[in-house]
Amino acid sequence: MCYNNQTLACQAICTLNELLHHPELAVEATRIRIVPRFVKTLSSDNVIIVQRSLLCIKHLSMQPMGIAHIIENVHIIANIRDCIRHPHSSIIRCQAAQTVNALVHNYFAVQTLAEHGYVKAIMKCINETKDLNLLEPISYPSITEMKDLLAAHLDSLLRLLDNGDEAKVALMSEGVFDLSPFLTGDCMMLKKAVASLFVEVAKHPIGKTGIVSHGLIPVLCREVTYSHGKEIRTKMASVLQFATIHREGRKQAFECGLIDSLVKFLPLNNVSLDMKKYVINTLTNLAELPEGRKCLKNILGDSKITILLHFEHDASIIRSIKNLYSVINWEP
């Protein structure tokens, strides 16, 4: 590729991008080690050259050797990370989001990207994008484009969390709890994505504390009660089962009337197996409070528990119901 003549370089990279749509040609491109060539094109001041380079890398990442060549090249990894927060072009930012989302479908890429600061870079881009006051000089042609960028980044973050607790800590240090307004927003796609992130964050001890200290318990309680869609309610219930392990989280959830909201899911005839588990686990956590035990004993009682056990067939749920019953009837 000729880098001095931008017109020729632009034509070449566009042609290459078209060719790489074909798997057999992508394999051949990988064989002749084309990946290092993108180190320079990713640094170009031409938006089209950079955007098409990112698209080429996305195509190559779908080949076993392609992804291997990409993640072993520290310069490529650094350049893609810089594109995530490109200072002038929303086109480059959006393509970078899609390319990173393609890369994180590979386990080894997840490890490499996490080690090279992608969690922080993505969170910074999300925080800049969701705050319209920070978009200058970046401007997005449409709200849809912004939502697609956010959705791709949120999915990438979820996959990067597979790298372990270090990735979760990095996510929390960059303000993941500031994404909570998406939980009450109208965009179901972003709502699900942020809820999924909070499920993983809530598994970490610092995450539980963060959810409580950032005032998310009342939000989660409202959403599990009133949100439209079973999937959303299930995710909210999953976050709550972890957040209510925290003593202050239990207290806040009880004060929000979560017990009354959750018992409405009982009996569990038309509820998914996951939702059953989350509801019962959360009620068990709330029963750790003296006032929670008293409330649940009044609402459920021996007869209601017996009915639940009679109609339940899943062994793990039966064990959870029995555990709930023992906690409700525990005498200090």
What is the strand content? under 5%
Class computed from helices, strands and strand pairing: mainly alpha
Radius of gyration: 24 Å
Q: How many beta-strand elements?
A: 0
Q: Give the % helix.
A: over 70%
- Residue stretches low in confidence (pLDDT < 50, at least 5 long) are 132-137
- Which series of helices and strands comes N to C? HHHHHHHHHHHHHHHHHHHHH
Could you say which overall geometry the principal axes of the C-alpha atoms support?
A: elongated
What oligomeric state do these chains adopt? single chain
Whole-Å distance between the termini? 76 Å
Please give the count of helices.
21
Sheet bearing the most strands, described? none
Description:
By secondary structure, the chain is mainly α. The protein is 71% helix and 0% strand. The protein has 21 helices and no strands. Helix 7 packs parallel to helix 10 and helix 15 (230-243) packs parallel to helix 18 (273-286).
Record the SSE blueprint.
Elements: H1 6-19, H2 23-31, H3 38-41, H4 47-60, H5 64-71, H6 74-84, H7 90-103, H8 107-115, H9 118-130, H10 143-160, H11 165-173, H12 188-201, H13 205-213, H14 216-226, H15 230-243, H16 247-255, H17 258-263, H18 273-286, H19 290-299, H20 301-311, H21 315-328
Helix pairs in contact: 1-4, 4-7, 6-7, 7-10, 9-10, 10-12, 12-15, 14-15, 15-18, 18-21, 20-21
